[in-house]
Amino acid sequence: MIWVDIAILAVVALSAIIGFFRGFLREAIGLATWILAFYLAFSFADTGALFLERWISVGSARLAVAFGVIFIVVLLFGAIINYVIARLVNQTGFAGTDRAIGGLFGVLRGIALLILLVLLAGVTPVPRDAWWQQSIFIGHLEDGALWARDFLPPDLAGAITYPEPATPAEDSSPSI
Fold first, then answer.
1. Residues 27-56, buried b or exposed e (16+ Cβ, 10 A)?
2. How many domains are there within the chain?
3. Residue 173: which pLDDT band, with cuts at 50, 70 and 90?
């Protein structure tokens, strides 16, 4: 096990600990809020930019401000909803179960984050480095990245490559 494997374990462990302490419902609502915030900001930034024409003359700045405002407003509403639901869960007595499932959710989130990082590394020369090839866990994460790559547009997916794993040389000595 080399340094990158220890870092991988640390990311998964840290994510699991955060998931445990926050609980599944808070983690799930938080994730859903971020996804919804990106979706709504992306979908309605053009419309929001129209309302800012009077104050911001540069089109790209209007779009960026509209995106940011929509994104932050959705995150704030999500945080309020998350807080209220977390208080209700703590009062119902399901806090222990919620935390245990939150820890499992954290493990999955950590693995998903690592797969995303490996996917991004696939467009760089990093996967050809010796430490990458020597890692115990990166090969498994590459499998996940290759699976995720199939969902990307073909132009982007074609840029993500990994070297073939080295295979040990066949033993040419005669067997008995």
1. bbbeeebeeebeebbeeebeebbeebeeee
2. 1
3. low
Three-point CA angle 99, 109, 125, nearest 5°? 155
Q: Is the pLDDT assigned to residue 166 strictly greater than 80?
A: no
Q: Round to the nearest angstrom and report the end-to-end CA distance of the chain.
A: 34
Q: Which domain holds residue 138?
A: 3-158
Checking phi first, is residue 163 left (phi over 0); if not, alpha (psi -120 to 50) or beta?
beta
0.90 surpassed by pTM: no
Spell out the residues 6+ positions from residue 134 whose beta carbon is closer than 8 angstroms to its own: 2
Give the pLDDT confidence of 5-24 residue by residue, as tens digits.
Answer: 999 999 999 999 999 999 99
* Look-up of token digits 């993500």: 160
In a domain, 93, yes or no: yes
Residue 79: which of 42, 129, 34 has the closest Cα? Answer: 34
- Specify if 176 maps to a domain: no
The answer to whether residue 50 sits within a structural domain is: yes
Answer yes or no: is 119 within a domain.
yes
Q: Report residue 95's pLDDT band, with 50, 70 and 90 as the boundaries.
A: confident
Exposure string (b/e) for 124-156, b if CB count within 10 Å is 16 or more?
eeebeeeebeebebbeebbebbbebbeeeeeee
Q: Which residue has the tokens 């760089």?
A: 124
